[in-house]
Amino acid sequence: PMILLYQMYKLIYSFAIVGAVSLVSGTTYVALWTYIGEQQTLRIRKKFVASALRQEMAWFDTSVGDPQELPVMATNALARIQMALGRSGADLIANLLSAMGCLLVSLELDAPLAIFMVCILPIIGIAIGIVSCYMRKYSGLALQDFASAGAFASEVLTGIKTIVSLRAETWAVKRYTNHVMEAQKNTVKSQVYSKLASGIMGFLFYVTYTFAFMFGTYQAAQRAETEASFRNPFACFFRTDCGIHGSEVMVCIYGVILTAQFIALMNPGIQSINLGRIAAAEIYGAIERKPVIDGTDDMKGVKIGKDYDGSIELRNVIFAYPSRPEDLIFSNLNLKIEAGTAIALVGPSGSGKSSLSKLLLRLYDPIGGKIMVGGEPLTETNLKWWRQQIGYVSQEPSLFPGSIRHNIASGKFDGNCTDEEVEAAARAASAHEFIMDLPDGYDSFYSGSSMQLSGGQIQRISIARALIRNPKILLLDEATSALDTTSERMVQDALDKIRSERKLTTITVAHRLSTIVSSDKIVVIADGAIQEAGTHRELVLEGGIYATLCEGQGLTADAGYHAVSGRTFETASFSASASSASSAKYPTENATDIEQAVAESRVDEEVTGEGTEDEVIVTTGVRSRLSQISKADIGYTILGYFGGILVGGLPAGEAILFGMITGNFFVIQDAALMRSTNYELSLWFLLLAAFSFIGNICMGIGFGVSGSRSTRRMRVLVFDKLMRYSMGWFDYPDHSTGELTTRLEEDSEAVGNITGLSQGQRVQVFSCLAAGLIVTLIYSWQVGLTAIACIPLILGSSIIQARFASREPPNDNLISPATLLERSFADIVLLQAYGLQGDVSTQYSIALEPDVQFKKKQAGYSGLAFGISQFAVFGTFSLIFYIGLRLMISGKLEFTDFFVALLSVMFSSFGAGQSGADFSAGRKGLEAAARLFELSDGITDDGDDPLSDRGSKPNIEGKVCFKNCEFAYPTRPTTKIYYKHGDRGGFSLDIDSRQSIAFTGRSGCGKSTALQLLLRFYRPSSGSVEVDDKDVSDINIGWLRDHIGYVGQMPVLFAGSIRDNILLGKPNATEGELVAAAKSANAHDFILSLSNNYDTDIGVGGGLLSGGQRQRVAIARAIIKDPKLLVLDEATAALDNESEKIVQAALDKMQETNPRTTLTVAHRLETVKNCDKIAVLGDGGVSELGTHSELLALQGLYYTLWTKQSGGL
Fold first, then answer.
1. Which pairs from 913-916 meet CB under 8 Å and 24+ separation?
2. Is the per-residue pLDDT at 1002 higher than 60?
């Protein structure tokens, strides 16, 4: 007994020492690997963003297809890469080394038995490898489907006003559901294959145990027979030819079992690495790709320098977009642009005017011919230097996230400029006055939707951004299309003044010909080549295409710009001294100043209704709500629970069989009895093999289906709710497109940690613990109670990790990484034109910093939790050995019973050791679900819910009345658009049924706002909007919008075909109605010229169409509704004159044959002169009202605007 006691105490001390070492090493290795994974992922994230922003447009068109998929893809893929590089990868290595060590011990003790058992490993490897191929396949498909769903959600949320005006909320929800449904199907397949691999592995291992114990029993029985043949019972202690002892068989088999356990524990790591490899293939494909056209390279190519004078020559240029190589834009284009001249490009929509702008910016290279700049081929010129010479204003201008000051300052290629330069550029662009009227002036924050700016205001800021560069070339792609006549004249005069002071080459794309009549050369592009070129007077007298266009706009050969009487412009140098005390810089380095400026411009939280004080997310009741969501799949859930309980109970059964067989090696001395008893017990492993296979399959199917369906329902539930919010809700920074799509993707992904296979893992863990404790209590209640007493110590790691995982990282950045990424890729053309790739990459890194610091701390907590869990397990073993030893010495416990109880605790501890990480992931999943429920539970007025049945559904004739309306946008409550002025009580206007009325006035005076109030995007703060003498707030909102056809200021189309987009206006329309609507919008001919006619794919946002083509499709979509009210917000601004004339004639004809109430916002007064009424807005309401002739007779503001557009002033 003393020798046994001494040896057992050595074992107890060994367990205690190993536990202490595990506490230190476990804490260190988990903390370090988690930290390394986070840091590596951060570097990869930064490199991906930097590389993706550098890629040429052809890559986005052909390889990516949808730039808006990139942020979603990056979010999902980088999460998988982080798992592969961090803890999962470390666990895989640790388990692999442990498996190798255990196997070596087994081979040393009983090589024949170990080799016999190991022979099954190649078979297992081959089977798992085959199954894993299918698992990776379907996991990759699911990743692609989720990326498509995220891109579609981004597209819909970006164009939410168009969606609600078309009553397309149901369509959007259905299409989003289809995307996530496909992802769900592939996810289920992936998870079933994952559990099939586990089932096959468990089945084969248990079959191996059967034959291993039979073979081991045979070896032990042989030794027993050999020992019985010697007279001295201790003879074999001194001989080496007696055979294998039962203890060696036990250790060998247990060593191989541990090898199998560690191999099984490698499965999550292997799965994470496989998913990480799939994700990394896409991410590294972008990182390692060298762009064919690189605008960030400061070394490659020739820098002409100060000698460059602004001259350009296009020689025999042939071009087609890479995504449509069969459709030539230019077939043989030749154009010479002299230095310092003003060149205007005109022609039909789709003729290639904007495409020429992209070629000059070298966003694309021609497939034939050359573009020469200063005598050098553009392809051999340093692109970074070249783009610094160009000030560019796009056809659909947009702003970057940040303050207005920084948006203008970003035009400077080095980012540094003084406040005086910013203000001077704004004044030249006629933007200074409206900027100063904003709550925080130049420091007013813009995040894409957080501030309501009119299209004209955004356009003027964009022009200021171009002017501040002091460019050699000014490239204006319909840059003044959204400006009122006065603002346009002021901007044009400023440009003329700049050109008179220094040499500036100006290239203008324009449909409003009055803006380019003073150009040095006007070039008419059609049919892929230049058809006419000359001055305005020469081309008009020539009587060709240009003359026809001028005739349509009432311009004569003598029309031209003249200085406005009495108008003086302040002169300001855009290259003022950099020594000014106040300077502006694009938000990259000086983040603190930016945050302060943004913070000052934010509306009080009382207004937004949101607080930021609570860091801990309340998750009370979330689990029960998730259970309600999955209630419909209760059958699958029960099947999953059955499988989880079955698989979780296997270690306890294994412990019983292992303990009894091992005990027989020591207790039974008769070889024949040992064989018969152990052979019979070994066969029970075949039953465990069947249970393992069946249980894993049940888990895969049950939890795979129920979990994927629950996650899909969560996504659809939130997306459906987003379709029900009012427009004002989307104006806040926290509800930007980037923020919302990130929540949909990241939080829905995290919810998977508390549903699906993660839930199955928890069931398996707790089943394993319960079964192990029950078996332990049955065989030795003393050992069982000791194990139960140690459970709090084992689960202490979970408590520690959950305590710190329940807090969210601080987010003091007002431009979140998600918003920044979404806006950057949405405006990739503008970003590259201004060379801001590096600045945005730096800003993105700054925005990531709070989350990075938070995760560093979390790595330490995770390491400590793991170290405690390992110490607890080994400490428990040490204590149990001590208790068991004392009980056996006192005769209160048999050896076999102790061994079964001990093995039950040991095998169960493997499950308990996994509960820490799982509990933390589950906590994060609950927090993610809470955030999603916060979105889905948001308070909405039923009256504003477009899918609500609330409100009356009267017969609508089209009479409209605005009564004393006062209004301010929710994010700018102190800046009123409509207000009382003098004797006028706000905005008031009566519009008779079937009457056409036009709104005109300066940019920002409230023209578009009137249409949005009619559509009930917003509600007036006082007064009312009535339709047929009924307050629109009392009319069912969906019914109201069904009777309104709307074309926005910036036409929004969606990915798909032309047919799909037009039919959004009337899904059940016939082919005849479809064609008729397209003809009415003058779109039919250009549609037929496309490769697949109406079924031609137009790309994301209609990006494969020109601006004018997109506008015509949008008009056709509105016309096909045959609405009672037609609302056109600058609907023809992007059309060429001929198309505009035809479309306007078609609209006029419809008004004659089928009169309807038509409200039109227009800056081109020629298009609205035939309206029944024209309302000139100003001073918070209607300042002039009458017909065209009546307003001219008044000789007020309208008279001034008309005269200027006619070229007579």
1. 913/794, 913/869, 913/870, 913/873, 914/761, 914/765, 915/762, 915/765, 915/766, 915/795, 915/798, 916/795, 916/797, 916/798, 916/801, 916/865, 916/866, 916/869
2. yes
